[in-house]
Inverse folding.
């Protein structure tokens, strides 16, 4: 059995948020669609990464020769859900030249003085590139909502606005892959404790993380609304169980790779006469002119 | 014998441009400092990459906690010298979150309407980051000189200006590693032919590459002046033979890693009471609040 066949269900189908999605009962320790175990997953990851990497290069080449398509991977998740690990271990498998990475924290005062999409638009991937957002415009209906940084009528209006904005992006040639990494409360506690126990992890811990943890129910509610209101046909959400890091990395690699496979970017056809250029090159000789 | 010991000379010493450097007699097929062969080099590369990657994370952590230090890798070289391969295979070994990558081509008209350092300064790495310039401000004394895009007195003034500007950068906490990949004329011809023979490489070929190749002596002269005039104590040039791709990747990895080892970044000390935080975390319990 080939490793690929251990995906008994396409993870895009297994993880896509549909009308019946219920965050409260979602198993954050699951491995939907993958019939193998951790070892199988870890063995398959680099192999699949190679394929993803070649597809990325084709997309990049297409973009260099006038193609307009790009991919945007939006990563959301609470502290310790593993967003950084996805960037390092999944995005890190492709050529850095093909990636446009941006991180968005709680909006700064300057950013809040602009429209909330202002800082986001500046970071959209150019044609041919895979954009990666470590947090995103969804912070404007998550932390901004939970911490009441704007009035309710303001954030309530944003779901529709985001849907319309993403639809335009998709029409412009960007394939949007929205991934929410969902870690369980217990696992988050363990990962925070690990950051406190290891001096090489202290810098990753912020006392504010406990404050955010204390608002768990409000964040779950805000996430549930995000999934309910912004998982569109143009830009669906994939909710990925994050208690098993090996699974979330494997699943996101698979989603990215299958998306690229469907985009099926082709090596651009030369816009010059190849045989003529070969002759011209041969004529330059093997020894440097003096 | 440990693989590391196959570096009989620190590549920074073996490759640094000193007063006696002579580009005309430089062996572009050499492997200065490395006593092993290609297999040894390829076996050692990922191992050394792991070490580089951990050091990069420490530097990143330092930058997150107020440290001001950064590293800037400047990559120069003629077409096919392998700059892209260095980004992919060397820079690609570290976490994308720790890298700030920028590419500079022939300056656009808008860029030429500004001071030539304008577009460069915008891309300098923030604290904690490894900046990577695929081409750089040196284009302004290379292609700009060869193609006479500005008058001679203008480009002649730039060497001193660049030295002064880099000195300021270094004083501000940036370690600058300037690497020129030097490919031979014959090898460049072969690599260009490969791009013409393989349809998946056609997009990397530009008919203008033959025009640039025809200006080989002028570019060699311009490079020789760059090395003679801008290899300073603050920011020396390393000229790397590029006919053996495995060697150039190995050497640049080694230069980067040794530089990071000397910077010796430390995990930041927690600015909060760790034991108090552990207690507070335990108090949040294992079950999500309702």
């Amino acid at each position: 059995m080939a490793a690929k066949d251990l995906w008994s269900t396409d993870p895009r189908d297994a993880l896509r948020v549909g009308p019946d999605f219920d965050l409260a009962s979602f198993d954050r320790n699951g491995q939907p669609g993958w019939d193998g175990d951790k070892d199988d997953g870890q063995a398959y990851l680099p192999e699949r990464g190679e394929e993803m990497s070649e597809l990325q290069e084709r997309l990049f080449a297409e973009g260099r020769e006038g193609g307009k398509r790009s991919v945007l991977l939006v990563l959301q998740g609470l502290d310790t859900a593993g967003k950084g690990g996805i960037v390092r271990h999944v995005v890190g498998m492709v050529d850095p030249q093909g990636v446009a990475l941006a991180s968005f924290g709680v909006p700064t005062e300057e950013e809040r003085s602009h429209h909330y999409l202002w800082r986001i638009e500046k970071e959209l991937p150019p044609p041919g590139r895979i954009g990666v957002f470590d947090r995103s415009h969804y912070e404007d209906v998550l932390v901004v909502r939970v911490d009441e940084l704007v009035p309710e009528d303001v954030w309530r209006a944003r779901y529709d606005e985001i849907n319309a904005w993403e639809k335009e992006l998709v029409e412009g040639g960007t394939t949007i892959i929205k991934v929410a990494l969902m870690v369980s409360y217990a696992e988050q506690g363990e990962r925070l404790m690990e950051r406190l126990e290891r001096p090489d992890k202290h810098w990753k811990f912020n006392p504010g993380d406990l404050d955010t943890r204390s608002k768990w129910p409000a964040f779950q509610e805000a996430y549930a609304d995000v999934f309910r209101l912004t998982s569109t046909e143009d830009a669906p959400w994939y909710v990925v169980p994050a208690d098993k890091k090996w699974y979330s990395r494997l699943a996101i690699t698979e989603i990215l790779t299958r998306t690229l496979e469907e985009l099926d970017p082709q090596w651009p056809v030369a816009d010059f006469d190849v045989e003529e250029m070969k002759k011209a090159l041969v004529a330059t000789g093997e020894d440097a002119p003096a």
Observations:
- Strands of chain B lie at 70-77, 99-103, 130-134, 174-182, 237-241.
- Chain B has one domain: 3-265.
